[in-house]
Design a protein that fits this description.
The structure is a single chain. By secondary structure, this protein is an alpha/beta fold. The protein folds into three domains: 141 residues, no CATH class; 82 residues; 40 residues, no CATH class. It is 48% helix and 7% strand. It contains twelve helices and four strands. The two termini are 48 Å apart. The relative contact order is 0.08.
Length: 301
Amino acid sequence: MIEYEPRLVEEAVLLALRDHAEEGVFRAARDRLYEIPDAEARDAAFRRLHVAWFERLGLARPIQRALGEQPLIGGETRTCVVAYAASSRQEGAELFVRPPGDGGSEAERRAVVVRLRPHMLLTPTRLLELLRHELLHIRDMLDPRFGYGPRLPAPEGGAGFGPLMKDRYRVLWDAYVDGRLARLGRARSGVRADRLDEFRRAFPMLGERTEELFDRFFTVAPLRHAELVAFALEPGASGGGPRAGRCPLCGFPTHAFEPEPGRLPRAVREQIRSDFPEWDAAAGLCLQCADLYRSRSPSLA
């Protein structure tokens, strides 16, 4: 079952009918509803009108198509709520699971929430691409063969390096998702180049083996959550690649160390020592940790 947030439906309809041949018909029908004296009855009538035009304009078709391509989602969740997003950062799909104590089967306790900006419903091709990407993530989360776990292991460098681990995992999972979509002819043009560029930035230590190792995620299927986690934790050791030293800060294996840590700005070195009092420039650090501390130094902002 698909549920649509009334605000999203209303704003999408108003946008779609702007300068539309049937705008006058819609406006006339809408204006008549203001004559309903009871506020609750009037609001309900507005909602029914907007839903009717939402369907008449075919604004739901990309959503229905994308969900139809993932029958596992329909079989393993209670509902899909399509809600309003105020910005592009809020757009995407999430899986929500009520605790077992709330009753019902596991599938009945699950719900998917898709958040979209209203104008996205006016661009069906872009919308379908977004939904396919987001819903394949959701499908993975529901597929026991993928073995998804909501919490990633803590990196050895401590909680401050958690975002680095999450970013690496995100890059790998996005590559795995879009690789499958590309093989089905459902990915946008140029997606491989974009994902490879993200992979290269996330794993600079891989050097000449970058594209070879990237293709293990973009072209190989099936993969499991645990394999993505293992690569994110130790990219230099995955797949038979040569291992290098570990960064003394984050604890990750790396082939890419900061070339001259002693020449890092003083503010950066002081920030590092505030987190790692025993650290000395002679111990070195990886490029990603160096970049992390450069970005955290107020004097360099």
